[in-house]
């Protein structure tokens, strides 16, 4: 469980301010439970405009959120304001300025929400505000009643109406991961968007797409909504982070000139490693900055404990879905939390996250084995150029597909014709075969283009020798991998102090 004393300290020391209006008041978690519905007294007195809110959306430091022990609809059925307060204090400490909250019709009551649930929503908005965070609403998740337009509108009026002029709420996602090939869904959304605009004319509206639908799906949505356009598009990115710049630019092109945000992104730490999860987010933040996308929202703040995801969701049966969090279920921070804090507070993305000196803990490994049947590099002590650890290959062969290697990819996105340099120090003990480093280039679809190799380490016994690749990214390049290779080696080779720029 998060440190409650820290939550209280943050609550009383942070400023709860209107991001849009510049109005500043001090607030605390206790105040979050005392205001009258819809708590407009805590909001700024000046009515926000659509332009104000949209400007805030485009730069929001948004966190996706459920409590670690109550995911999805369970957040509302097992509502715990004390746990939410502590969690949002933690999010604010990372630099978050906005939190996305998903409102489920079945949980809240449809088409007439239950008063106890609208009160829970009011409390959530107030708690977020006490930490200087605005809120985005996502509506109509786990819902497909597309023939019920009038009932849908009635439900939106009850949920959204109290917040139409509340600057603490900056946007509404009408439907989570909308499916543009669902004819009934498209027919429904064409009617619901004008109705939502009538309820909240100054509220930016969006739809999100899932990772599989991607840019092509966004283009379909834009084409279908020519007469009822959205204010911005919400891109959920779970693709290959090494080529994330190319994917983000595809999404931008699909809906241009309408802006986009990255409303969900991340990777499961149990499906990869905590190090790879961190580097994945670092690459996406860096690529988004390069593309001019100012809002990237990690999925999600917390890992989930056993039983936290409602059993009616297929997600509950997928182990990897429990470990996308920046924090473990016990409240301790993963490396990913450091990445997000750095992105939101300094904007820098240092290569240190890549573990180029092999000094990071085992659970923060970012290097992956290539051609492992022919040999795998292992992190060892005893023969380091600097620090304590180095990467060792011994007794390697090769396969018909290539040489065994350990590989990683840079945080900086790849663009054609940009200069790249990679280097590593290698040392051999009775080394044989081929020891080198290389840069392998890939296009936007992940197709291999070419490889640039370094000088080779001499066979036999050597001192620490620098291997260098100095080159230019080829035409069509959208991704690159750095490989540390040692093949046909009956002796041993150590790598250390890798650099890439």
TrEMBL record:
Q: Which InterPro entries match?
A: Galactose-bd-like_sf (IPR008979), GH (IPR017853)
Signal peptide annotation: 1-32
- Looking at the keywords, is Signal present? yes
Q: Which keywords has UniProt assigned to this entry?
A: Signal
The lineage's top-level taxon is Bacteria
For whether the record's keyword set contains Signal, the answer is yes
Protein name, as recorded? Cellulase (Glycosyl hydrolase family 5)
């Amino acid at each position: 469980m998060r440190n409650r004393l820290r939550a209280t300290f943050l609550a009383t020391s942070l400023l709860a301010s209107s991001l849009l209006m510049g109005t500043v008041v001090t607030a605390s978690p206790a105040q979050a439970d005392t205001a009258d519905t819809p708590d407009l007294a805590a909001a700024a007195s000046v009515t926000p405009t659509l332009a104000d809110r949209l400007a805030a959306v485009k730069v929001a430091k948004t966190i996706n959120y459920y409590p670690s022990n109550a995911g999805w609809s369970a957040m509302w059925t097992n509502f715990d304001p004390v746990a939410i307060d502590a969690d949002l204090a933690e999010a604010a400490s990372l630099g978050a300025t906005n939190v996305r909250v998903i409102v489920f019709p079945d949980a809240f009551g449809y088409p007439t929400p239950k008063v106890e649930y609208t009160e829970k929503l009011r409390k959530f908005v107030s708690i977020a505000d006490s930490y200087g965070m605005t809120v985005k609403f996502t509506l109509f998740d786990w819902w497909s009643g597309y023939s019920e337009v009038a009932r849908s509108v009635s439900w939106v009026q009850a949920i959204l109406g109290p917040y139409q002029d509340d600057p603490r709420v900056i946007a509404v996602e009408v439907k989570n991961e909308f499916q543009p090939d669902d004819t009934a869904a498209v027919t429904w959304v064409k009617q619901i968007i004008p109705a939502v605009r009538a309820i909240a004319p100054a509220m930016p509206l969006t739809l999100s797409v899932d990772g599989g639908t991607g840019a092509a799906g966004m283009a379909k949505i834009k084409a279908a909504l020519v007469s009822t356009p959205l204010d911005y598009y919400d891109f959920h990115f779970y693709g290959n982070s090494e080529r994330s710049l190319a994917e983000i630019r595809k999404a931008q092109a699909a809906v241009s000139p309408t802006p986009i945000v990255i409303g969900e992104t991340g990777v499961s730490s149990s499906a990869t490693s905590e190090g790879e999860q961190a580097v994945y987010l670092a690459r996406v933040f860096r690529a988004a900055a390069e593309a001019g996308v100012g809002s990237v929202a990690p999925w999600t703040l917390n890992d989930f404990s056993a039983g936290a995801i409602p059993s009616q969701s297929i997600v509950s049966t997928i182990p990897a879905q429990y470990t996308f969090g920046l924090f473990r279920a016990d409240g301790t921070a993963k490396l990913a939390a450091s990445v997000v804090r750095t992105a939101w507070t300094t904007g820098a993305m240092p290569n240190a996250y890549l573990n180029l000196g092999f000094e990071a803990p085992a659970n923060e490994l970012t290097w992956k084995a290539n051609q492992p049947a022919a040999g795998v590099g292992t992190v060892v002590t005893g023969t380091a150029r600097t620090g304590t650890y180095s990467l060792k290959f011994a007794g390697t062969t090769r396969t018909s597909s290539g040489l065994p290697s350990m590989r990683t990819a840079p945080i900086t996105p790849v663009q054609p014709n940009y200069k790249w340099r990679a280097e590593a120090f290698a040392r051999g003990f009775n080394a044989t075969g081929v020891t080198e480093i290389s840069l392998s280039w890939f296009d936007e679809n992940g197709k291999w283009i070419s490889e640039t190799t370094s000088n080779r380490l001499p066979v036999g016994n050597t001192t620490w020798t620098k291997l260098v690749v100095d080159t230019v990214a080829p035409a069509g390049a959208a991704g690159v991998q750095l490989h540390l290779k040692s093949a046909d080696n009956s002796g041993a080779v150590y790598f250390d102090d890798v650099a890439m720029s």
